[in-house]
């Protein structure tokens, strides 16, 4: 083991604060980096040392490999934690850390490279017994070639960009005569978006779930999985709510998914923490999607049910330690849900809502956790992603976790900007959500907020309706509801089964 004395946290926001807190609890010194726009950010205040590495734009600060390595050298850090996003999945950065004699807290560069390209990852895992969606992984040579394969697979099929991601360039083809035009459009879109026109074809799964497996592997050949996370509630490929366990996974399926996830990471010589993503179809068959070679935003729900501190495990593994538990010791308990609180206005198409936070009050209870980097007086800018905080609620079962999350959201006060708090209240009240009927198209299918475009008018009328409802119930005379207190006109809509009092 090579004990880590000082970590440079090469990130910002809630994850930087979370990593700093873990290091400090372990007696590890901390340094961090910040851009000029983040001078008053909480991670700067929390770390023992903070180094300004450049102007606000990420490319000139948090994404600049040379500046981050230089800051690590200047701070005397012997390790760098990249968090998520920014340089966390950049193999060149991981290699640069090693060349500088600084421990990269994450997988080896070769494993990042092997799994970083979706096509390469699929080809690698397919030879290790990991199930893939029926189709071919090689790029199609022509529309004619593609049509022949599509006929073998059976319609509907999905054409995907080989260099793509995040759903860009995907095209559903439901019959033979649609194939050629769809192939041409997908290829040209792929060339325009990714500089690579290569596309491939596979069976289209209607309304799949997105379920991911947390894995942990050390440098002594030990690897285990820590259960799954249900991540289907997404909007434009951005997760909004995650939970564990998934209602669609039973113990036998969990074991099979876990073993498949371990096979995938072992094939790549992976160490440290990682997440293997799967699509799950209506028959509860699962298919490999990709591997995220970093700590994920939603890791706290796994921590809530396992009692593990995953950042502590990362540091222990990076220092050469052996896994602190065996597979048979993993015994998740209860149910945990995470709501991502974003500085976006769900009543106005989730448009970003920058500005100063005038009032900030977190909910408190023994079963709640809030990971945040903001505070009263903090200025939310447009430079970085809109994640303000992650609210996690645990319960002995899913209904209790849902109810506790609803109470927590109602008690969470963030004023001065708009947030996704009202959206989450609507989501948690939705009957399909409460029944656990989740899929990646859940919001489109079950949440009016998207179809109606969530106009500002709806919010204002919703605020009036909510105030009226409170008054009608004899509650204290309603003040002008806080911008983001649980003023949920959608709540009224949900209660009224879609009836909109303002319509
Ligand atoms: C699919 C699919 C249905 N069938 N593949 C979207 C982005 C990329 N990660 C993979 N995605 C999908 N691939 C087949 N064969 C549906 C999606 C999909 C999706 C997947 C995971 C999370 C959110 C999603 C939202 C829309 C579509």
What's the SSE blueprint?
Layout lengths: L5 E4 L3 H13 L3 E7 L6 H5 L2 E6 L10 H11 L3 E3 L9 H9 L3 E2 L4 H8 L1 H9 L16 H11 L3 E5 L9 E3 L2 H19 L4 E5 L5 E9 L5 E13 L2 E7 L6 H17 L4 E9 L5 E7 L6 H8 L3 H9 L16 E8 L1 E2 L5 E2 L2 E2 L2 E3 L6 E5 L6 E2 L6 E9 L2 H14 L1 E3 L5 H9 L1 H4 L7 H5 L1 H4 L4 H17 L16 H7 L8
Parallel strand pairs: 1-2, 1-4, 2-3, 4-5
Antiparallel strand pairs: 6-7, 6-8, 9-10, 9-12, 10-11, 11-14, 12-13, 14-21, 15-16, 17-20, 18-22, 19-21
Helix pairs in contact: 4-5, 7-8, 12-13, 13-18
The structure holds ligand MV4.
The site of ligand MV4 has 15 residues, from β8.
Strands in their spatial order, largest beta sheet: 13-12-9-10-11-14-21-19
Number of strands: 22
- Share of helix, binned: 25-40%
Look at the helices and sheets and give the structural class.
alpha+beta
The CATH homologous superfamily of the largest domain is called ATP-grasp fold, B domain
Rg, Å, rounded? 23 Å
The CATH topology annotation of the largest domain reads as: D-amino Acid Aminotransferase, Chain A, domain 1
Strand coverage percent: 15-25%
Q: Compute the number of helices.
A: 18
CATH architecture of the largest domain: 2-Layer Sandwich
* Top-tier CATH class of the largest domain: Alpha Beta
Low-pLDDT residue spans = 475-503
Measured distance between first and last alpha carbons: 65 Å
Overall mean confidence score, pLDDT: 91
What's the story with the biggest beta sheet?
8 strands, antiparallel
- For this structure, the quaternary state is single chain
Shape designation: globular
Hetero compounds: ligand MV4
Number of domains as seen in the coordinates: 4
């Amino acid at each position: 083991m090579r004990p880590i004395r000082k970590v440079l946290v090469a990130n910002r926001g809630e994850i930087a604060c979370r990593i700093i807190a873990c290091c400090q609890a372990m007696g590890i010194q901390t340094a961090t980096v910040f851009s000029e726009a983040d001078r008053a950010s909480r991670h700067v205040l929390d770390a023992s040392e903070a180094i300004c590495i450049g102007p606000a734009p990420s490319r000139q600060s948090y994404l600049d490999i040379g500046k981050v390595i230089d800051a690590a050298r200047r701070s005397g850090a012997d390790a760098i934690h990249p968090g998520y996003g920014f340089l966390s999945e950049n193999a060149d950065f991981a290699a640069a850390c090693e060349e500088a004699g600084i421990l990269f807290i994450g997988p080896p560069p070769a494993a990042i490279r092997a799994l970083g390209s979706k096509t390469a990852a699929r080809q690698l895992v397919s030879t290790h017994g990991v199930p893939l969606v029926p189709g071919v992984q090689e790029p199609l040579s022509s529309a004619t070639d593609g049509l022949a394969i599509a006929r073998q697979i059976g319609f509907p099929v999905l054409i995907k960009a080989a260099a793509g991601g995040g759903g860009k360039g995907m095209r559903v083809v439901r019959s033979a005569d649609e194939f050629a035009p769809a192939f041409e459009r997908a290829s040209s879109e792929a060339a325009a978006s990714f500089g690579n026109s290569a596309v491939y074809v596979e069976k289209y799964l209607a309304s799949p779930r997105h379920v991911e497996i947390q894995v942990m592997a050390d440098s002594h050949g030990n690897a285990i999985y820590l259960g799954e996370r249900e991540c289907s509630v997404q909007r434009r490929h951005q997760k909004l709510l995650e939970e564990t366990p998934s209602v669609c996974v039973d113990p036998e399926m969990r074991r099979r998914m876990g073993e498949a996830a371990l096979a995938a990471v072992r094939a790549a010589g992976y160490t440290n923490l990682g997440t293997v993503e799967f699509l799950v179809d209506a028959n509860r068959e699962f298919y490999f999607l990709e591997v995220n070679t970093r700590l994920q935003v939603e890791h706290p729900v796994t921590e809530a049910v396992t009692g593990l501190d995953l950042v502590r495990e990362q540091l222990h593994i990076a220092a050469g330690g052996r896994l602190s538990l065996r597979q048979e010791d993993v015994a998740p308990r209860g149910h945990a849900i995470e709501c991502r609180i974003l500085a976006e206005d769900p009543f106005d198409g989730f448009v970003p809502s920058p500005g100063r936070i005038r009032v900030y009050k977190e909910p408190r209870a023994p079963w709640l956790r809030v990971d945040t980097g903001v505070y009263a007086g903090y200025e939310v800018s447009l430079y970085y992603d809109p994640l303000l905080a992650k609210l996690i609620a645990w319960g002995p079962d899913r209904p209790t976790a849902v109810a506790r999350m609803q109470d927590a959201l109602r008690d969470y006060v963030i004023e001065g900007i708009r947030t996704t708090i009202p959206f989450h209240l609507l989501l948690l009240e939705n009957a399909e959500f409460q029944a656990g009927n989740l899929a990646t198209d859940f919001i489109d299918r079950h949440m009016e907020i998207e179809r109606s475009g969530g106009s500002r008018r709806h919010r204002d009328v919703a605020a009036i309706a909510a105030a009226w409802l409170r008054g009608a119930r004899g509650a204290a005379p309603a003040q002008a509801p806080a911008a983001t207190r649980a003023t949920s006109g959608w709540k009224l809509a949900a209660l009224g089964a879609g009836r909109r009092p303002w319509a």
